[in-house]
Fold this protein.
Amino acid sequence: MTTMTDPPQAEGFRIGQLIHDTRYRSYTFQFIALVLLILGFSWLAYNASQNEQLQSNGFSYEFLSAPAGYDINQQPIPYTSQDTHLRATVIGAINTIIVAVLACITATVFGVIAGVLRLSNNWIISKLMAVYVEMFRNIPVLIWIIIIFTVAANIFPPISEFRLPRDGSDPDRTLLFGMFAATNQGVFIPRLVFTGLGWLVALVFLASIAGVFGWRAHARKKLFDEGKVVPVLLPSIAILLLPTIVAYFILGMPVSVENPEMGRFRFEGGFLLRPSLIALWFALSIYTGAFIAENVRAGILAISKGQTEAAAALGMRPGRIMSLVVLPQALRVIIPPLISQYLNITKNTSLAIAVGYMDLTGTLGGITLNQTGRALECILLLMLFYLTFSLAISAIMNVYNNSVKLKER
Amino acid sequence: MNKSVLLGTLAFAGLAAAGASAATLDDVKARGSLNCGVTTGVPGFAEPDADGVWQGFDVAVCRAVAAAVLGDPEAVTFVPTTGKTRFTALASGEIDMLARNTTWTFSRDTDLKFDFVGVNYYDGQGFMVPTDLGVASATELDGATVCIQTGTTTELNLADYFRVNGMSYEPVPIETGAEAVQQFLAGACDVYTTDRSALAAQRAGFESPDSYMLLPEVVSKEPLGPLVRHGDSEWGDIVRWTLNALISAEELGVTSENIEEMASAPGDNPEINRLLGTEGELGAMIGLDAAWAKNAIAASGNFGEVFDKNIGESTAIGLARGLNAQYTDGGLIYSPPFR
């Protein structure tokens, strides 16, 4: 125990200390801010509660179980217009996730390539990348989405050129390799059809991918522990392909490729990449890719030049220096801002409405809201969905960030 | 974006709460102009002309109401609305009335809490296709790609029609009619569907209208008419009877040409006299001055004149009167008596 020469109570507490004393001042301001915030929200809530329409209609989510009545073109799960608004909402949510995941992957690829190349010693390449980054960063993504959508509708030939003319002559255009067709109604590509035990083949293939990763881990362990170089490339290819091919033939070829075929109006069968998906996916990728490129460049510049020189002194080639020495260290700087870029992509998918891609904003926040008139309920639900998406991405990416960040032991 | 929508909704809710206490009529008079919701542009129905002045069949209803209430057909602020924003704009008080190719349906009248005051155009949903598609009937459209304006009854009718007939289609949802037309002309969809009046109007504006045709099927009833917010019956009466005045004027032979003469002194037809305010107190009963109906009719003429001038057979849009003829000519247009 220490002796208390100056007990704090002795001085007493004066009101003025709330402003003048730095110990209390921050609490005062935080308290004021909190009160203002609560007042602000209660004003909004009061206003909403006074809304005539809300008072007479009540606040209810019952409309979610009523039949939606409208059709959706991109259906990741089966849906008809007689299904409920809830199912339409779920389809919208899945469509949002599809385009967000696709765009996150391609944006990362574009970003890393552009970021690394902008630091290239080749003047033309580095300037080209600078132009790309500055051009895409400084024009709103909505404009890019619309530009790409319009361009896609105009550069791809109209589908009428693929149709069989009624006089029995040959159409102007046919499928590329009998498999692909880029039209202004979308890009038609073949589709895998699984029959019978086909899913088993897919399962074997997934297991093979896991096997490849296992082999690479094994090779690395051998190298680090025993100094033995184990071949990676050829065994990886073998592990990836052989079991699947064997399974495919043993199970009696249950997986087949279905090519698009011209029907009365357009191609039937196969898989259709709609122009709205292409426009949204591509625009989000190149736009966010430009931001990621700047993160990557910053990350690389943050690594001391001595690292590159030391690696070069050991005789490493530039490509390996980048992938083995610089990038792994740069990841610590790159990952945190990358998380927020992924969040941006997810939120920006809501611009899908501009090109008629049926994402969550198109189904729940668009047609459902409009057909039921339940604006407040729909918008609140929409906010909840996007909040959940964003927090989930944040959580997953933070796990990854923890695995690459500098470990202090 | 989502947050701003919510804040906007809440802010509008506040406005609506403030506006609900005062009558719309007083608001309009105090403001000195009528806020009228129209489309973002359908030729013949509502579209600004080369000078930026709004013209059209729906616009005429707005002008008639402004003339009846304020005595000036120009005292209208036109608010372009899309299929999705129109009801929010009306419910929130941003506009006083909506005259915008809007279908009178049960749920809009009851659940959405609006009052339809009448029908100014009896329409039905149809399909437009390029002639070289080689389709003569909507029943041959199985597998086609269809452009639709999203958030409309059209969307629901389309789904029902294809489901009932056991056909499939690829919907291409689009926000505004103008965009839908662009997509349709670019060949991004085989079929464009909306109300037949709008299809005819838009086809008239195409570079080569003959390359496109309307299919004969009419797949729905679309009674289009102006609407107001539920709960202000006095304002609803004013808009309803202004529309009826235009319709009665045609029936009674009152036109923009003879109206000054007829209104200058009572004639021998008492209904015309009551309509034009030379007899009785009809104006006072709805809180307007005696010349309200005269002003409304003088604004752009009677119902028939408005029809002929904007969308009739002599215009590029070329719609026949059909169902929209007076009941005396075998149509459905009918006004209750001015008595």
User: Anything to note?
Assistant: Chain A has a mean pLDDT of 85. Residues 72 and 358 of chain A are 7 Å apart (CA to CA). Chain A has 13 helices and seven strands. The beta strands of chain A are 181-183, 186-189, 191-194, 255-258, 261-262, 267-268, 271-273.
